[in-house]
Write a structure and sequence with these properties.
The complex is a heterodimer of chains A (about 110) and B (about 120). Chain A is about 0% helix and about 60% strand. In chain A, a hairpin with a 4-residue loop joins strand 7 and strand 8. Chain B has about 120 residues and is mostly beta strands. Chain B is built from no helices and eleven strands. In chain B, the strands form two sheets. In chain B, strands 2, 4, 5, 6, 9, 10 and 11 form a seven-stranded mixed β-sheet that branches. In chain B, strand 5 and strand 6 form a beta hairpin. Classes of the chains: A mainly beta (about 110), B mainly beta (about 120). Chains A and B meet through strand 4, strand 5 and strand 9 of A and strand 5, strand 9 and strand 10 of B.
Chain lengths: ~110, ~120
């Protein structure tokens, strides 16, 4: 069974810092990988989708990479802002969607 | 563009009472629909998925059931709630035409259920 791990569970950084969130998975047979953002008490908002044939995707200050062979993905956030504070989850899409437990990010003004 | 609506947003129910959470999707046809539960400090647990009207697959045996009476409507129900049913319930759609494992996943705003 696919297992998805996100480390660290929580991260606190000062505003303006660049940061990297990690996602690892055990089965490389995937269709794609998706990064989400979740604000407290809200649903998940899709940030980036990387197809299995792609190496990375970019949207604004966000860049997600995928190394399928090693079972790893990273989400890079440039010039972090307090509004980036949220929980970030990755989901691996194989026969079904498998989710990590997320990284809770706090950006300190 | 595609949107998902969930209601109610918040629900407080006594143990043993029935439950009905509704999810509707706009802007797409024949969507694959999912119900997830998110418990505090834990990942998302897939409860049910549906690839078409009347087609429901259960991932976890439990006190809940799901139905899909229309193409873009997905309902989560219970006849008698348990304390352990408390949680944050999320409806999602991803892909169309019954093909699993493809497409991007989109979520509704969620329904917070508290069972007392």
């Amino acid at each position: 069974k696919q297992e998805v791990t996100q480390i660290p569970a929580a991260l606190s950084v000062p505003e303006g810092e660049n940061l990297v969130l990690n996602c690892s998975f055990t089965d490389s047979a995937i269709y794609n990988l998706q990064w989400f953002r979740q604000d407290p008490g809200k649903g998940l908002t899709s940030l980036l989708l990387i197809q299995s044939s792609q190496r990375e995707q970019t949207s604004g200050r966000l860049n997600a990479s995928l190394d399928k062979s090693s079972g790893r993905s990273t989400l890079y956030i440039a010039a972090s802002q307090p509004g980036d504070s949220a929980t970030y989850l990755c989901a691996v899409n194989g026969n079904q969607f498998y989710f990590g437990t997320g990284t809770s990010l706090t950006v300190i003004p | 563009s595609q949107t998902i609506h969930q209601w109610p947003a918040t629900l407080v129910q006594p143990v043993g009472s029935p439950l009905s959470l509704e999810c509707t999707v706009e802007g797409t046809s024949n969507p694959n629909l999912y119900w997830y539960r998110q418990a505090a400090g834990r990942g998302l647990q897939l409860l049910f998925y549906s690839v078409g009207i009347g087609q429901i697959s259960s991932e976890v045996p439990q006190n809940l059931s799901a139905s899909r009476p229309q193409d873009r409507q997905f309902i989560l129900s219970s006849k008698k709630l348990l304390l352990s049913d408390s949680g944050f319930y999320l409806c999602a759609w991803g892909g169309t035409g019954g093909a699993r494992g493809v497409g991007e996943l989109f979520f509704g705003e969620g329904s917070r259920l508290t069972v007392l």
